[in-house]
Automatic annotation (TrEMBL), chain A:
Protein name: OsmC family protein
InterPro entries to which the protein is assigned, alphabetical: KH_dom-like_a/b (IPR015946), OsmC/Ohr_hydroprdx_reductase (IPR052924), OsmC/Ohrsf (IPR036102)
């Protein structure tokens, strides 16, 4: 398999979708919890790939956005950036594998400074700059998470029992800049990647992979799941902080996020298919002990404060550069 | 022989060196693997004809009428082999027998044709097929629903291996669709049931189970060992994957162990990859024996259907028998049976001898025609007790809960003359003991 990437498996998915477009509908789910006792965590839920379910058990202990610098664990924004960069690199290596490019390395540094995203892809083993440019162009057009970053994608918000989704874009303007975050995502093999936080703040390396239904080996959550976990955790984190600030109450918040992908766009099995994530929805479970008015106030404020939500909904300024790494002499 | 003809149909068509993106890739496997030398017949052809002819390797060098035994562990490497490694398509080129062998491909095509599918896999045993299927189609963190009275080997796999592999299992009564539905969770990925259960011959609604699985976006895998595709084709009723202990009726002669899996190739390729990692290869001579045995499958199974029904009727009228389990006898347990889905009910009959396990053991010793041995589905009749064989790992309470009562005997009826079998049973049972009459 080229680059340990199962091109035959992806080719079969392309033709399966052409036979039955329903096979292109992918659904991802994630949940996050902000607890005054157990801290902030996020986990993935079952995913649906056309007609096949993939239920896996992955969770991440996170650092709350209100924690002091030096606290342990990645920030929610680290998860979101990991999701964007790992999707970009998987798209790059996958696309290169389809055209028989043999990679030595593929890395992406990605940073959020509170208002814009800067990223840089370094590719090793690719024979010339033109090929690198072509591969990066394909990333910008076909990577589901990268296109979610550069295009406005509405996210519906639900809270309270049986609540209808609030209209998209309820939060006006950019949130106040929080803490900058950056990570380096490194392609390892096939659909496996790692993500390490950059900068002085500590954080464990995160593993990224595809589920085995999509030719991965279940080594970790996949890129879309990281992006959704980042959104759920960011909103949950702000809910916990703002509930304390606005109501004086420390309660447990649970946030569920879902999003769909038409994989016909990534694979170009259907060139008319939308590439970026769609039908994004964030559901906040009503915690015990808050009145309806308090709940509304906290949820609206947390939604407005979420930088990951802004990243998805608002298409912030994005800068992507690329560089071809010369082969190391033996 | 032209070199390309040893690769599976579709292998060369799927190669595209000029691709620039996924959408340009041309591989679209939906069937096989079979080469141009394997006989592929329409699935509309009758089972008797498919059993004889489907999958036969028509050797272009010798003109052999039967499939040659490709008794080799490895094959010459060539450009196709290297391309297969590079593209991730090594199931479609004979490279190494653990990966695939034309002898296996022949019998796979025959089983696929009989089950009405386009792809199949043969393995070294039924449990190899079952384990590979369950591992391949579930992930750590998922949930499985199965039956508490599923075959003992399957039960042990689900109970003893799945928790440590990160899969949770809920066991229910397979005939209680409400219980099955209630067991479903968001992370339920697989429902695993038998089309006719061992040893009590419960006949769950495959259509009903398929509906529940579909609603849950889960896959329905059924073990069709007892019924065989002659009596039921579960894929047509909504099952996603069918597994077999091919050791039993498919092979039919108690001379090999083998397993089989049938379904869409998107699932079969994953199960194949799991089976080759487990090392559950069916070796070529057993593949040959299995293919040869299957040529008479419809004839054997129809004879066994009739014999078992006759035996069940005889036993139901005998004073020394407390209960008989067989769908042909009807009764409340089979009230909802969708008879149109069955071509017959196979050769199994289970019954309770009055007097408990001791009396049942004495009865079995007196039998002259059936062998007292475990296993089933061969041309010869076999008789055994679940309590001290297939279900011996269960506690007495667990056996009682699922209906395995003292004195339960499992009779695998062969193709002998049924009058001889009934006479033998009658003599072995003898006159009812005085205490049994009270």
């Amino acid at each position: 398999m080229r680059n340990s990437f199962n091109t035959a498996g992806f080719s079969e998915v392309v033709h399966e979708i052409r036979n039955d477009p329903a096979e292109a509908a992918f659904l991802y789910t994630a949940e996050a919890q902000s607890s005054p006792y157990r801290g902030l965590s996020a986990r993935i839920g079952p995913a649906l790939f056309g007609t096949v379910k993939s239920a896996r058990r992955f969770s991440v202990e996170l650092r709350d956005v209100s924690d002091a610098p030096g606290a342990d664990g990645p920030l929610p924004m680290h998860l979101a950036l990991t999701g964007i960069a790992s999707c970009a690199l998987t798209t790059l290596v996958g696309g290169g594998s389809a055209q028989s490019v043999v990679f030595e390395s593929a890395d992406m540094d990605i940073a959020w400074d509170g208002g814009a995203v800067a990223s840089r892809i370094d590719v090793g083993g690719v024979p010339d700059d033109a090929t690198v440019a072509e591969l990066v162009d394909q990333v910008e057009r076909f990577s589901p998470n990268y296109t979610t970053l550069i295009r406005p994608v509405p996210v519906a918000l639900r809270h309270g029992p049986g609540a209808a989704p609030a209209s998209a874009g309820t939060a006006e303007g950019a949130p106040a800049a929080g803490r900058p975050a950056a990570c380096q995502v490194r392609w390892i093999s096939g659909t496996q990647l790692t993500s390490a936080p950059l900068g002085p703040e500590p954080g464990e390396e995160l593993r990224v992979d595809a589920p085995k239904q999509l030719t991965g080996v279940d080594w970790g959550p996949n890129p879309q799941e990281y992006l959704l976990m980042g959104l759920a955790a960011d909103v949950a984190s702000h809910l916990g902080r703002l509930a304390r600030e606005l109501t004086g109450r420390a309660v447990t918040w649970r946030v569920a996020v879902r999003g769909t992908e038409d994989v016909g766009g990534l694979l170009q099995a259907d060139p008319s298919a939308v590439v970026q994530l769609q039908d994004m929805e964030c559901a906040v479970a009503e915690p015990a002990g808050l009145s309806g008015t308090e709940l509304e106030k906290v949820v609206v404020a947390a939604w407005a404060a979420s930088e990951v939500r802004y990243l998805i909904e608002a298409a912030p300024a994005v800068r992507l550069t690329s560089h071809r790494v010369e082969s190391c002499p033996v | 022989m032209a070199k390309e003809s040893r690769t599976a149909i579709g292998f060369e068509e799927g190669r595209n060196d000029g691709a620039k993106w996924f959408g340009d890739l041309t591989r679209s496997r939906f069937a096989g693997p079979v080469t141009p030398h394997h006989r592929v017949l329409s699935r509309e052809v009758s089972p008797e004809t498919l059993a004889v002819h489907a999958g036969t390797y028509e050797d272009p060098v010798t003109g052999a009428v039967g499939t040659p035994v490709f008794q080799t562990s490895t094959f010459l490497l060539d450009d196709a082999s290297y391309a297969a490694f590079s593209d991730g398509t090594s199931r479609d080129v004979p490279i190494y027998t653990r990966y695939g062998n034309p002898s296996q491909w022949s019998v796979q095509e025959k089983i696929a044709a009989l089950e009405g599918s386009r792809s199949a896999l043969v393995t070294s045993s039924g449990m190899s097929a079952t384990a590979s299927t369950i591992y391949a189609l579930t992930n750590a963190g998922s949930h499985i629903v199965s039956a508490y009275d599923v075959y003992g080997g399957t039960y042990n796999l689900l109970r003893e291996d799945m928790p440590s592999a990160g899969r949770e299992v809920t066991f229910v009564d397979p005939c209680d669709l409400d219980a099955v539905r209630a067991a479903i969770r968001p992370e339920t990925q697989l429902l695993f049931f038998e089309t006719l259960t061992n040893p009590l011959l419960k006949a769950p609604s495959v259509r009903g189970l398929a509906k529940i699985a579909k609603e849950a976006n889960a896959l329905l895998v059924v073990d069709n060992t007892f019924l065989t595709p002659v009596n039921m084709r579960p894929l047509e009723l909504g099952a996603d994957v069918v597994v077999h202990s091919a050791t039993k009726y498919l092979a039919g002669h108690s001379d090999l162990t083998a397993g089989a899996v049938v379904g869409r190739r998107k699932f079969l390729d994953r199960i194949w990859a799991q089976a080759l990692r487990f090392g559950g290869t069916l070796e070529p001579l057993s593949a040959f024996l299995l293919e040869r045995g299957m040529k008479t499958l419809p004839l054997r199974v129809r004879a066994q259907n009739a014999n078992a029904a006759e035996v069940a009727r005889f036993l139901a009228g005998h004073e020394r028998i407390a209960a008989v389990h067989h769908p042909e006898l009807g009764g409340p347990r089979y009230a909802g049976l969708e008879r149109a889905d069955y071509g017959g009910f196979g050769g199994m009959v289970s019954f309770e001898v009055r007097g408990g396990d001791e009396a049942a053991l004495e009865f079995m010793k007196k039998l002259r025609i059936p062998y007292v041995a475990t296993s089933l589905g061969g041309v010869e009749s076999l008789v055994s007790m679940p309590s001290n064989t297939s279900h011996s790992s269960l506690t007495a309470r667990q056996r009682s809960r699922i209906g395995i009562n003292p004195g339960l005997v499992r009779f695998s009826v062969g193709i002998e003359n049924v009058r001889d079998l009934v006479r033998d049973l009658d003599e072995a049972l003898g006159a009812p003991a005085e205490e049994d009459k009270r």
